[in-house]
Amino acid sequence: MSSVEIILYAALPVYFAAVVLLGLGAVLPGRRAGRVWFYLLVAGFLLQSAALVTRVALSGDVPFTDLFEYCLSLGWAVALVFIIFFRKNLPRPVSAMVLMVLILLTALGLFYYSEPTATRPPALKSNWLYVHVSLAALGETFFAIAFAAALILIVKRNSADQGYLQSLDGVVYRAVSMGFPIFTAGAIVAGAVWAKRAWGAYWSWDPKETMSLVVWLIYAIYLHMRLVKGMKGTPTAIVAVIGFIMTLFTIAGSMLLGGLHSYG
């Protein structure tokens, strides 16, 4: 087992422990899990950061070139964005759901673990790789936060606490509105420019290109429903959940369906 795998396997139980403490705080009135869950989250994030740095040191390049590295980088970004932007504003169930997404991404990355290669395919030898992948991953990070809040909103849709539901709806909207332009710039615009330089065409209907376009359209529909139609609550939350499920499928799509994005 590699050093990177060992570090990530150490991070998983730390994230699980944070979820358990969040759950205890939600179901046991009068008892407080305190801030320990957050300290565990930070500890898991530091372990994931160590895994990321170790991978970079071993490969000598940015960790964007295969499915394992993408899951590692995306999980790291989700933890970072959550800590910086959302930890003070999210109800405990939403925070727990974000942690479950972190666990899922870490486990998915370990499932697809591969050793770093000394050479990269010619298409990956471009500065547009850094722009395309980093912005796409950052946009998907905000989509993950939106998914967590949207899923809790759907589960709690019959709650009498309308203020709580409105708060969840606001989190979903804020996360999507932050992630959508970043995803557009990275996955769609920068991806097209890179495709032109690497393969000679801005668009090739590659499976992952097509699925990324579907993801973009789903979140565009969400914003249209929210801003133009004035819709809120469960209908828009369902769209946000579908969008992130499609995002996860898109991440693994190059392995499942092949195509120009099949690098590892």
State the major sheet. Answer: none
Structural class based on helices, strands and sheet pairing: mainly alpha
Q: Would you report the number of β strands?
A: 0
Helical stretch tally: 8
Reading the helices and strands in chain order gives HHHHHHHH
Please tell me how large the radius of gyration is.
19 Å
Mean pLDDT across all amino acids: 85
Strand-residue proportion: under 5%
> Low-confidence segments, ≥5 residues, pLDDT <50?
none
Distance between the termini: 18 Å
Which bin fits the share of residues in helices? over 70%
Outline, from the CA principal axes? flat
Description:
This protein is mainly alpha-helical. Helices cover 77% and strands 0% of the residues. The chain has eight helices and no strands. The chain has helices at residues 3-27, 36-59, 67-86, 92-111, 127-155, 162-199, 207-228, 234-257. Helix 2 (36-59) packs antiparallel against helix 3 and helix 3 (67-86) packs across helix 5 (127-155).
